[in-house]
């Protein structure tokens, strides 16, 4: 068993630790077992619960999980329907437990394409947990990094057109405050499962200086020991932010 406290204390001198996760491999996990993709998605939700619990135990302050991309809407209707049913189940059954564990829930992404009942459940989950001071759990749904940046540019352009903002005043802080992740610190570590080595339009602005860790483990198999292994790898990285080492 890995000793948790020394691991976390060695990761950073900062008080915040933000881990982002691209949860990939549900379909391949299911196919390898002769099961439909939807079976993999359901098993993937169990991995979500494991990682959320583990993140809280390890002292991670922010956890952002890529659940459903804006591009995923092009998948077969049957698969999308099942994914939405899983989301409903999670929002109806798991949120109370997360609230009891002091987890603060926030959804990132475009809600316009979701059904009214799901949007209502999302709103209720955010309102219920808004004052919680434990793990900040951000779930990206119907989310795309380019779309997020485009919307931010549009908001800023409208503010300039309305005379509320001078073009010369536009800086990183203005852009940050116009993104879905307003108020959330940038990720320190990005993990992608299933052996793929790409970002897939996730948090494109925010991961400018994140450390990237890729693992061959398929998401439904991902658990505490895999998260700890990724954190151990992260702890060995030298983060220079464009500067030289001294």
Automatic annotation (TrEMBL):
InterPro entries of this UniProt entry? UPP_synth-like, UPP_synth-like_CS, UPP_synth-like_sf
Residues forming the catalytic site:
24, 72
Would I find Protein biosynthesis among this entry's keywords? no
Task: Tell me which Gene Ontology terms the entry assigns under biological process.
Answer: polyprenol biosynthetic process
- Residue ranges spanning the membrane: these are none
Q: Which UniProt keywords apply?
A: Magnesium, Metal-binding, Transferase
* Positions contributing to substrate binding: 25-29, 37, 41, 69-71, 73, 75, 192, 198-200
Transferase keyword on record:
yes
Q: Which cofactor names does the annotation list? A: Mg(2+)
Which residues hold Mg(2+)?
Answer: 24, 211
Note the Gene3D superfamilies from the entry: Decaprenyl diphosphate synthase-like
Listed under GO cellular component are: cytosol
Q: How is the cofactor bound?
A: Binds 2 magnesium ions per subunit.
Q: How does it assemble?
A: Homodimer.
Q: Which HAMAP family match?
A: ISPT (MF_01139)
Name listed for the protein in its UniProt record: Isoprenyl transferase
This protein's species is Candidatus Endolissoclinum faulkneri L5
């Amino acid at each position: 068993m890995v000793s948790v406290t020394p691991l976390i204390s060695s990761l950073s001198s900062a008080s915040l630790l933000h881990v982002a996760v691209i949860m990939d491999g549900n379909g391949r996990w299911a196919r390898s077992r002769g099961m439909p993709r939807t079976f993999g998605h359901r098993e993937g939700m169990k991995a979500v619960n494991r990682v959320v619990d583990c993140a809280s135990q390890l002292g991670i302050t922010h956890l952002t999980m890529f659940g459903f991309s804006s591009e995923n809407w092009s998948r077969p209707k049957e698969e999308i329907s099942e994914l939405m049913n899983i989301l409903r189940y999670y929002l109806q059954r798991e949120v109370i437990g997360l609230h009891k564990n002091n987890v603060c829930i926030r959804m990132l992404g475009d809600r316009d394409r979701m059904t009214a009942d799901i949007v209502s459940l999302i709103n209720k989950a955010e309102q219920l947990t808004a004052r919680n001071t434990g793990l900040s759990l951000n779930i990206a749904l119907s989310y795309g990094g380019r779309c997020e940046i485009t919307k931010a540019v549009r908001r800023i352009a409208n503010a300039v057109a309305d005379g509320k903002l001078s073009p010369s005043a536009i800086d990183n802080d203005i852009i940050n405050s116009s993104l879905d992740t307003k108020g959330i610190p940038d990720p320190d570590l990005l993990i992608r499962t299933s052996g793929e080595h790409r970002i897939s339009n996730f948090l494109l602005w925010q991961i400018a200086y994140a450390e990237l860790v890729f693992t061959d483990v398929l998401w439904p198999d991902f658990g505490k020991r895999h998260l700890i292994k990724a954190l151990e790898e992260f702890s060995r990285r030298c983060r220079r932010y464009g500067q030289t080492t001294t």
